[in-house]
Structures are given as structure tokens and as C-alpha cells.
Design a protein that fits this description.
- By secondary structure, the protein is an alpha+beta fold.
- It has one domain: 2-Layer Sandwich (Heat Shock Protein 90), CATH 3.30.565.10.
- 27% of the residues lie in helices and 28% in strands.
- It has 4 helices and 7 strands, in the order E-H-E-E-H-E-E-H-H-E-E.
- The strands form 2 sheets. It has a 5-stranded mixed sheet with strand order 2-4-5-7-6.
- Helix 1 packs parallel to helix 2 and helix 2 runs antiparallel to helix 4.
- It is globular and about 45 Å long.
- The chain starts with a strand and ends in a 12-residue tail after the last strand.
- The mean pLDDT is 85.
Length: 172
């Protein structure tokens, strides 16, 4: 059974963790919309999603850079989803971006596969992003990623809002 989870406290906790433990050369920024929709889920698993993204971002910025975490409410319409099998409706859009080195297309195409890693041997298992995708999919959500070489990475996680959280006045 999954509870209704407010994602803002989880993001606040991850931001504090990153500020306390990441190198000072990495700036941590967050921007959260007020009154984020609750999502159905497990707080520990959603925490793991955020932590995986943040640790990966830290690892691709050894000389420093910027890690940005944003969250906002979004209503996806049928037209927004024409190329996917996702369900229209209210979502929380979680965005995690970094100013790291980005990824070539052949690497990007495989990043959600188990045991795929760009890290040195002994520095990672290659299970972080496959775990992220599994958690997000079990919540009915989906992940989009953009990571042009030399421009950093941008992960967009769409988590369906918990039932009965959005009234007609909040829709587009």
C-alpha cells in the first residue's frame, strides 16, 4: 500500500544533505512551487530517486558546478502525451539538472539499463538510474532526460498526483 507523500520535505532534506556533504565548489539551488500536489508512493523510495540523481550530478562535476532541483505542479493534456502511453492529468514535475559534461547519444540511450555506468571501476554499480526508473514507473510516472555533451544533464520526472488532489479550477 502506498501513502500520499508530500515531495517538498524530501527535496528540502536532500538539499540540506547535499549542502552539508558535497564539495563547496558545487552550488546547490532549489526552486519549489508552493502547494505541490501530493503523490502516491513510498517516501523512502522517492528519497532514493532524489539521492541517486544528486549523487550522480556530484560525480560528473569534480571541478564544481551547479546542481539544481525544481518541482512544480503540471496538468498534462492528451496533446502533451501524443508520443507516449502516459495518462493525462495532474502530475508533480521534478527536475534535477547539473552543469556536468553531458553524455554522448550512445551512452544516453543505455543509462537506465541495469549495470550501465560511466563511472570508473569500483566507483558505482550502474544500478542507480535503473532503480530510479523502476520506482518512478511503479508510481505510474515517467522520466525524460536531455544531456548534450558539454552542456550538463537535465532529468525530468513526472509523478502522477494522488487522486482527488486537483479540482476543476486548477486545470488548464
Amino acid at each position: 500500500m502506498h501513502a500520499r507523500v508530500q515531495i517538498q520535505p524530501l527535496i528540502d532534506e536532500i538539499v540540506r544533505f547535499a549542502e552539508d556533504t558535497f564539495p563547496r565548489s558545487i552550488r546547490i539551488q532549489s526552486k519549489l512551487s508552493p502547494e505541490l500536489f501530493p503523490v502516491n508512493g513510498n517516501a523512502t523510495q522517492l528519497h532514493q530517486v532524489l539521492l541517486n540523481f544528486c549523487v550522480n550530478a556530484r560525480d560528473v562535476m569534480p571541478q564544481g558546478g551547479c546542481l539544481r532541483i525544481e518541482a512544480g505542479n503540471i496538468i498534462l493534456e492528451e496533446a502533451d502525451l501524443r508520443k507516449s502511453r502516459q495518462v493525462p492529468g495532474p502530475y508533480v514535475l521534478l527536475t534535477v539538472s547539473d552543469t556536468g559534461h553531458g553524455m554522448p547519444e550512445q551512452v544516453l540511450a543505455k543509462i537506465f539499463e541495469p549495470f550501465v555506468t560511466t563511472k570508473e571501476i569500483g566507483k558505482g554499480t550502474g544500478l542507480g538510474l535503473s532503480t530510479v526508473l523502476g520506482i518512478v514507473k511503479t508510481r505510474g510516472g515517467f522520466v525524460e532526460v536531455s544531456s548534450p555533451v558539454g552542456e550538463g544533464s537535465l532529468f525530468r520526472v513526472f509523478l502522477p498526483a494522488a487522486e482527488a488532489t486537483v479540482g476543476p479550477a486548477q486545470r488548464k
